[in-house]
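re: that chain from earlier
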Amino acid sequence: MGGRSAAPGSHNLVAVLDGGTVGMAAALPGTGTYDEPRSVWIGPLARGGA
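^ sequence. v structure.
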C-alpha cells in the first residue's frame, strides 16, 4: 500500500457488523486540530439495502 494511505499519521478504519465488513473510512492529518476525511465507503447492508 502506498500513496496517501501510507502517509505518516494517516488512519484507515473498518466497520464490522456481525463478522462482515460494512464500512471503511480513511483520513489524513489535518492542518489544525482535526484529521481530514479522504474516502468513505458504506456497504449496502449498512445503508439499509440487501
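The two ends are 30 Å apart (CA to CA).
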